[in-house]
Amino acid sequence: MNRIIFYGKQNCCLCDEVRSLIEILKSNYEIDVKEVDIEGNRKLEQKYLVEIPVLDINGEELEYRQIDLSTIRERLH
């Protein structure tokens, strides 16, 4: 089982795009997704505010400039 922690927020176009990529991949991979809304969490806002969306895929963090379908797929098993 693949584990993805998705750091994002509501009303974020890039976050919506990444959600769509994950849904596409769910048809071929077993993926457990935990979505974390950074808004209201001071520590996460400081860390990720200008970097979202961020994915932690099986312990490896990818920031938004690295996220595309093939990059996510390479990290899944």
TrEMBL record:
Cross-referenced Gene3D superfamilies: Glutaredoxin
Pfam families named among the record's database cross-references: Glrx-like
Superkingdom field: Bacteria
InterPro entries to which the protein is assigned, alphabetical: Glutaredoxin-like, Glutaredoxin-like_YDR286C, Thioredoxin-like_sf
Identification of the protein by name: Thioredoxin family protein
Organism, scientific name: Halobacillus andaensis
